[in-house]
Specification:
8-stranded parallel β-sheet, alpha/beta, globular, 14% strand, 14 helices, binds flavin mononucleotide
């Protein structure tokens, strides 16, 4: 499978962009476990143009994570084209446009999934961004604004006509936010539309090697993208790749092996930010990880882990869990 000139394995598995999650350390970690492409958090085109320091930092990419895309959002066509040029200087492999974010502060202003209400403007922005840069441009969006306006099948053709190199579709409408179940039916319809030539990437609710394979089998998509299931579980990429390649479940690692991955994430987070902010940042991963599921009477330990304020305190709790569950 190829996106523009970039080669990917068949049935590629990508890390989904996630605000406050897919920072450089997490992207490298997912890459290490086998993610075939990673993406930055979305960045505001307006903030990029205003040269906001924290936004500029988010578009820094490293050699070790290639291929990597930088994702931008916004509602002003010229600002989006200018922001794409700023991103191009940061030298990603791909520039991705976010037309999927459902949160009010974004969609309410007509950006992100708000664009599903104004498809003409979405196409104008896409065409302008494609023309403003040399790097391949991709789009990530949803099925439509709501149940009565699932416009994605025709929209996919129109986006392709704007010159994008690949399309990612999250199988929900904006109205659904993150509720209900992702519906992959229309994703399959896009993939099987004989007029579509660009790679189609499916996204929504993949949480295991089996569900990834099922989606590939059902829809024939070129790649799948995994978001929430990777939080606290970056090793999911290895599990999915192993299953796709061999048809067998990846052998389990020891409890301490998984725990060590999480501890590495803590250290990287603290190194990148500082001790206080790094620990705050990593709590989301510790709260979400499946590693501690099923441990009897875990609640007090969990509370202690999420209350720890220093690395020493946190590791004391984590090492205690490790000692009790060594296997
Ligand atoms: C915390 C969080 C942050 C997200 N941030 C972004 C983002 O910056 N850009 C984007 O395109 N999608 C974003 N998403 C959506 C995900 O990329 C993905 O489309 C969605 O979570 C569905 O996939 P999943 O079921 O595998 O999580 C975010 C989702 C979550 C949960």
């Amino acid at each position: 499978m190829k996106i523009a000139d970039i080669e990917f394995p068949d049935r590629a598995v990508f890390l989904a962009p996630m605000e406050d999650v897919t920072d450089i350390a997490f992207r490298l970690m997912c890459k290490r476990f086998g993610a075939d492409m990673v993406c930055t958090e979305f960045v505001s085109s307006d903030a990029l143009i205003r040269d906001v320091k924290r936004t500029r930092e988010k578009i820094i990419v490293s050699e070790g994570e290639r291929p990597v895309s930088i994702q931008i959002y916004g509602s002003n066509p010229q600002a989006m084209a200018d922001a794409a040029q700023i991103c191009e200087e940061a030298d990603p492999d791909i520039i991705d446009i976010n037309f999927g974010c459902p949160v009010k502060r974004v969609a309410g202003k007509g950006a992100g999934s708000g664009m599903l209400k104004t498809p003409d403007k979405m196409l104008e922005i896409t065409g302008k961004v494609v023309k403003s840069v040399k790097k391949p441009v991709t789009v990530k969006t949803r099925l439509g604004w709501d149940d009565d306006s699932k416009i994605i099948v025709r929209l996919a053709e129109q986006l392709q006509d704007c010159g994008i190199a690949a399309l990612t579709v999250h199988g929900r409408t904006r109205a659904q936010m993150y509720t209900g179940q992702a519906d992959w039916t229309l994703i399959g319809e896009i993939k099987n539309n004989p007029r579509m030539r660009i790679p189609i990437i499916g996204n929504g609710d993949i949480d295991s090697a089996q569900s990834a394979k099922q989606r590939f089998d059902e829809t024939g998509v070129d790649a799948v993208m995994i978001g929430r299931a990777s939080v606290g579980r970056p090793w999911i990429f290895g599990e999915v790749k192993h299953f796709l390649e061999t048809g067998k479940e990846a052998p389990n690692e020891s409890f301490l092996w998984y725990l060590d991955v999480l501890k590495q994430q803590v250290l990287q987070s603290v190194e990148r930010l500082d001790e206080r902010r790094g620990i705050l940042h990593i709590r989301r991963h510790l709260a979400a990880t499946p590693l501690f599921k099923g441990i009897p009477d875990f609640k007090p330990t969990r509370i202690a882990m999420l209350r720890a304020n220093t690395v020493a305190e946190l590791f004391e709790v984590m090492d205690g869990v490790g000692l009790r569950n060594k296997k």
